[in-house]
Amino acid sequence: MKILFIGPPGSGKGTQARMLANELKIPFVSMGDIIRDEIGKRTKLGLEARNYVIKGQLVPDETVVSILETNLPESFVLDGFPRNLSQARLFEKIKQDYVFYISLGFDEAVKRITNRRVCPGCKKVYNLLSDPPQKDSICDVCGAKLMTREDDTVDTVKRRMAIYERKTYPLMKYFKKRSVLKEIDGNGGIKEVYDRIRKVFDRTAQDVPTE
User: Fold this and answer.
1) Which letter, b or e, does each residue of 100-120 get, where b requires 16 or more Cβ atoms within 10 Å of its Cβ?
2) For an engineered disulfide with 28, which of 21, 52, 81, 171 has Cβ 3.0 to 4.6 Å away?
């Protein structure tokens, strides 16, 4: 099973992708987490990626693919890739079963992102408005101190949204032509959005060939 999640920053695609992967019991792969791990390790590729991330720009395709190549399993739920047509074409030889597009408006995206907190240990993502930790600034799962991503500022979010509109939005048309795109309304609570995904998945799963 090969499932992709795409959508604007703050749409919750990472949270939804992780939930679906856990339920289906297949690996969850986050392109964002992989890149941030490389940045944290201060590898050559990580430092290269950081120069773009802190400016609110997309990491170049060549760097992204180099990082991804060693982390993609046979079966997966992938969050954060592809982000443009160039990256999508690298996946043409891999037939996706589903591409979930989580839609969300600009104002709601900014509100979500600026209230986002992340655990540097187990990678669990919180939102101070809709999904806060039980103890202030402490991860419920592993007890680590939560952090704000350095690219989760209003100015950076605006730049990321502009880039998304220009480069990522055309992916909808690309995947729609291949009859794998499933558009999901990203407004509402986490469970509400996930229920929409499950309804689409359950309704169409019988049409997906088994490997």
Assistant:
1) bbbebebeebbbbbbbbbbbe
2) 21
Can you give the residue range of the structural domain that contains 199? 2-105+157-207
CA dist 147 and 144 (Å) reads 9
pTM, full prediction: 0.75
Write down the catalytic residue from 36, 50, 117, 160.
160
Q: One-letter amino acid identity for 140? A: D
Residue 115 lies in a domain: no
**Active-site annotation holds for 36:** no
Spot the catalytic one: 50, 116, 124, 182: 116
Catalytic residue among 2, 18, 50, 83: 83
Within a domain: 152: no
203 has catalytic annotation: no
Whether 117 is catalytic is: no
Q: Decide if 16 contacts 100 (C-beta within 8 A).
A: yes
Specify burial of residue 173 (Cβ count, 10 A radius: 0-12, 13-18, 19+). exposed
Catalytic residue among 149, 158, 167, 176: 149
Q: Tens of pLDDT along 14-68?
A: 889 999 999 999 999 888 788 888 898 999 999 999 998 888 887 888 888 888 8
Could you tell me whether strands 125-127 and 116-118 are parallel, antiparallel, or unpaired per DSSP bridges? antiparallel
